[in-house]
Design brief:
691 residues, five-stranded mixed β-sheet, 23 helices
Length: 691
């Protein structure tokens, strides 16, 4: 049987993407003045993991680029390379080059040769300059021989080792393992006895790091660490030789002790404390935990999850058909059957929720994309901006997260460019020089709210109105702030003083709004001049299954999303006010709301046209309210959403479709489109409110 290594490509690509994202996050958050050693080790391990996989699959450009990056990261974590912003910027650019190379290999193409050569040269340049700077710094702090402390044994810091023992390996594998261990510094000595390789490092290294590097080649059970102490020697050559002999002797004793008296498990090995004069082998208690953690998760393609969701949806439809079929049966004569159906309904509901939860992902998945964008763009704009995220654990359907990323990115760029001022302007306004951009997410009912807030200059009402008039839009000074803010979503609308490569061309905000509406959501804006702006995106939690209200108009049945319904009522004559020949307003709780008559919108015959005899529903959309006239409410139902455009075509006023229990198709209403139909009489509404 021949193993096709290409079968594992996708797994490698997915893991490499995750490692690059983690590398970017750690680099952005790294404190240059006092870098955390654990973060540096994690960045190094990410690069090393990608290099190992690239070498396995023969991805040469990727392997060589990560090898150069890995060398620099290794020097940085050992304090041999001083990190500054320029170095971090180069590492981040290298991360982007690596991402491009992975995308090329994923598409079965060769990566960009020029990008590879340019990055390789820049990494080598940094390596050489760093080495020169390190040599100068070392010569400046050299101590005279007389100041060197006398030799003597001192214990290594906890978790640091100099001896590595690897058992159960063939001799021809030794060179590869020694090469990998060379990443941690010079190799002082190496021996191979039986099936065990023992390597002595010239400098102490973290045991965890060594295990992370070698875990791609050997099993954790093959790895053990030796000497628990080191010897500090003076500058004399004879003393150096003596120190090496002492350490080598200690190592050989430790390895022999481990072979002769190996502990039963890793946990007990970690508690074996040896005296300073006779160092003993130290075990690795984390190995067992690592394997159990890895086995607790499973990587599954989204296509398989979507297929399961579709099948569950069909199950829900079948369950509804059964419920409708036996709904008229006598409860006493068919009690067991009805009880079984009720149990099936509960189980189907639980199964739906369990399957849908598989596609739910924390908003942290989306928020993690923005620290790099904010960092790069703020530098480009000459601004100081702090990014704050809230509600990262709030979950949303993965498909929605992926489709909301572009609109969110555009809104963030707008906040950075138009919203937050330069440090000089902020200081002049009595604000801190650094602005704050906040990304927040929270659940509210059956929706998720995503806020993009800044503490910048806020929207300028007069400038927006002037620009709207210049563009030929119908506006008035009596418009509310909410109505004025919505003007920025008009096609081609921009108040930027100058066109830049960031924004200012008037392209994008209308697309942002349209894309969000296509997802069943809407956008609200709150702004205070001089204090800042918050743009709120309201989305359903999922696009696959929704709770809705079945409504009848004539002989037609529609579904109204349950979250949009605020109340339903039968109105009295004194609540109605006619505006013009064919428009009516309904007085609800102190204000007149436009009335949308369903039979007029969809041209339905034999429908109830008398408002006093029908049912009036109060509906919310885009932060506004309107009323909807229907014949009858048929009840609440959880429905499986089917894309109408895929199976038929786009229908104005309809967002999707579903299949009812009797096999018939019901159309799901587009609340935003109906709201716009009601807004055609907003001018009359304002006049009526003043009358």
């Amino acid at each position: 049987m021949t193993l096709d290594i290409a079968e594992f490509y996708q797994t490698f690509f997915d893991e490499a993407d995750e490692l690059l994202d983690e590398m970017e996050r750690l680099l952005i958050n790294l404190d240059i003045d006092a870098p955390d050693s654990e973060d540096l080790n994690a960045i190094f391990r990410a690069a090393h993991s990608i290099k190992g996989g690239a070498g396995t699959f023969g991805f040469t450009h990727l392997q060589e680029t990560t090898h150069l990056l890995e060398n620099l990261l290794d020097r940085a974590r050992h304090g041999e390379l001083v990190l500054d912003r320029a170095a971090i910027d180069l590492f981040l650019e290298c991360r982007d080059v690596l991402a491009g190379q992975i995308d090329a290999y994923r598409a079965a193409e060769e990566p960009d040769q020029n990008a590879y050569e340019d990055m390789a040269q820049r990494l080598r340049t940094l390596d050489e300059q760093g080495s020169a700077a390190l040599a100068n710094a070392a010569s400046a702090v050299d101590k005279p021989v007389g100041d060197v402390a006398p030799a003597g044994p001192v214990a290594l810091p906890e978790g640091m080792v100099r001896s590595v023992s690897i058992s159960g390996i063939a001799e021809d594998k030794c060179s590869t393992l020694v090469e990998e261990l060379g990443l941690f510094g010079d190799i002082e000595s190496q021996t191979y006895e039986g099936d065990t390789l023992t390597v002595m490092l010239a400098q102490p290294a973290a045991a965890d790091d060594i295990e992370s590097v070698l875990c791609f080649i050997i099993d954790a059970e093959q790895l053990s660490f030796g000497a628990a102490e080191a010897v500090v020697a003076d500058s004399a050559e004879s003393d150096d030789t003596h120190a090496e002999d002492v350490v080598a002797q200690a190592v050989s004793e430790a390895v022999a002790a481990e072979r002769d008296n190996k502990p039963q498990d890793k946990a007990s090995a970690s508690e074996d404390k040896a005296p300073a004069a006779a160092p003993a082998a130290a075990g690795k208690p984390k190995a067992a935990n690592k394997s159990s953690a890895e086995s607790s998760s499973l990587r599954v393609s989204t296509e398989k999850v979507d297929e399961i969701i579709n099948l569950v949806g069909e199950l829900v439809i079948t369950q509804s058909m059964l419920e409708q079929t036996i709904g008229g049966l006598d409860s006493e004569a068919h009690g067991a059957l009805l009880e079984g159906l009720n149990q099936l309904q509960r189980n189907a509901r639980d199964l739906q929720e369990a399957v849908m939860s598989v596609r739910m992902m924390p908003m942290d998945y989306a928020f993690n994309r923005f620290p790099r964008l904010v960092r790069d763009l703020s530098s480009k704009l000459g601004k100081q901006i702090n990014l704050v995220t809230e509600g990262e654990s709030t979950e949303l359907d993965k498909g929605l997260i992926e489709r909301i990323m572009d609109p969110m990115t555009h809104l963030v760029r707008n906040s950075l460019d138009h919203g937050i001022e330069t440090p000089e302007r902020r200081k002049a306004a009595g604000k801190p020089a650094a602005g704050t951009l906040t990304l927040a997410a929270q659940h509210q009912g059956g929706s998720i709210l995503i806020d993009i807030s800044d503490d910048g200059a806020g929207l300028n009402r007069e400038r927006i109105l002037a620009k709207a008039r210049q563009n030929g839009l119908a506006v008035s000074d009596s418009m509310s702030d909410d109505e004025v803010w919505q003007l920025i979503f008009a096609p081609g609308f921009s108040t930027a003083e100058a066109v830049t490569d960031v924004s200012g061309r008037g392209v994008g905000m209308d697309v942002v709004k349209r894309n969000i509406q296509e997802l069943g959501g809407h956008v609200d804006i709150r702004s205070t001049f001089g204090q800042g702006t918050t743009i709120r995106i309201v989305l359903p939690l999922t696009l696959a299954i929704m709770d809705g209200m079945l409504i009848r108009v004539g002989e037609e049945v529609f579904i109204m999303p349950l979250g949009a319904i605020k109340e339903s009522m039968q109105v009295q004559a004194d609540q109605l006010k006619r505006v013009g020949q064919d428009k009516q307003l309904v007085y609800v709780r102190g204000e007149y709301l436009p009335l949308v008559e369903m039979h007029r919108v969809f041209d339905i015959d034999n429908a109830q046209s008398d408002v006093l005899r029908g049912i009036v529903m109060v509906i919310e959309s885009e932060g506004r309210y309107f009323t909807l006239l229907v014949d009858e409410l048929l009840g609440q139902r959880q429905v499986v959403v089917k894309n109408l455009e895929t199976n038929y075509r786009k229908v104005v006023g309809i967002s999707a479709a579903t299949i009812l229990g009797d096999g018939s198709v019901a159309l799901i209403l587009d609340v935003v489109a109906l709201s716009r139909a009601g807004r055609q009489s907003e001018t009359q509404v304002q006049r009526a409110a003043l009358a």
